[in-house]
Amino acid sequence: MKHYLSLQDIDSLDNWVEEARDLKEDPRKHKNLGSDKTIGLLFFNNSLRTRLSTQKAAMNLGLEVIVMNFGSEGWALEYADGTVMDQGTSEHIKEAAQVISQYCDIVAIRAFAGLQDKEEDEAEKVLNGFKKYASVPIVNMESSIGHPLQALADAITLAEQNTKIRPKVVLSWAPHPKALPHAVANSFVEMMHMQDADFVITHPEGYELNPEITKGATIEYDQKKACENADFIYVKNWSSYSNYGQVLNQDKSWTMTPEKVGKGKFMHCLPVRRNMVVADAVLDGEQSLVIEQANNRTYAAQIVLKKILEQ
Ligand code: CP
Predict the structure, then answer these.
(1) 182 Cβ below 6 A of ligand 1
(2) What is the pLDDT of residues 106-133, one digit of tens each?
(3) pLDDT at position 240, please?
(4) What pLDDT digit, counting tens, does each position of 258-304 carry?
(5) Average pLDDT rounded to a whole number, residues 37-56
(6) Pocket test for ligand 1, best of 42, 45, 46, 49 (most atoms within 8 A of CB)
């Protein structure tokens, strides 16, 4: 595996989940695999879990770690070819990616969607720019359209918690005051396409995700009906895709409550806005898996880095 850019880079989800669960039993088992190698973590956006869990995973494998808050500390990058750089950008991705490749054996990148221009976001200019010009493997720590490390951690959590042959899993939109990207929801849908489950997506009309990604999935516009008898309810806000990047409503009747969760398990990638996205009683209850999901981010990152180091 040269890069980890999306879930498509996983050859067998079941095997990776099993291997990640083994790593969780003995995280330092391969503590010398990354000896004398360096990973660079480049953040164009904020993070808590991704930053610390990826760093922890790298350390478990013996890698040296360099972290840079590129969005606030790096030179503003130019991505277009042939531009006369007489405006705000100071350095071209061509030089930046090649230079960073001299310092790092693996480069991991977080660069969110801007939500202003669908075409530009879907071009994944940061991730694909590094892929094109870097000479080392690239790891996606959440890009415009996907968060495959989160989805892999979620697959690990589902495997640990599931007791049924074919569980019912619901992905539910929830209200939020800000426009959020589609990346987490997109990757969760892609991951569920790789599982044998009764998978339902629920959201208000107007919040349909990219139909190329949801193709074949059941969409139910009645949230309560969707959540009936669910084994797992994964809650996430995202902005409109058709009315790109817009917040169409903040309808609090979509906030996740204990009544809707029923006997199911509650999942969210975090960070989460309490009593907006989900009621305190759900987050603080025994059915919430959010802390374990965050824990599994380390082992998701670790299996990805292990595969790259072994190639
Ligand atoms: N879930 C997740 O990616 O968390 P952070 O944004 O804090 O990294």
Answers:
(1) no
(2) 999 999 999 999 999 999 999 999 999 9
(3) 98
(4) 999 999 999 999 999 999 999 999 999 999 999 999 999 999 999 99
(5) 98
(6) 49
C-alpha distance across the termini of the chain, in Å: 7
- List, in order, residues 6 or more apart from 283 with CB less than 8 Å away: 266, 272, 274, 290
SS (H, E, C) 9-34: HCCCHHHHHHHHHHHHHCCCCCCCCC
- Using the mean position of ligand 1's atoms as its centre, give its distance from the Cα of residue 198 in Å: 27
pLDDT in the model for residue 304: 98
Mean of pLDDT values over 5-22:
98
Q: Is the ipTM of this complex over 0.95?
A: yes
**Ligand 1 atom with least separation from CA of 46:** 6
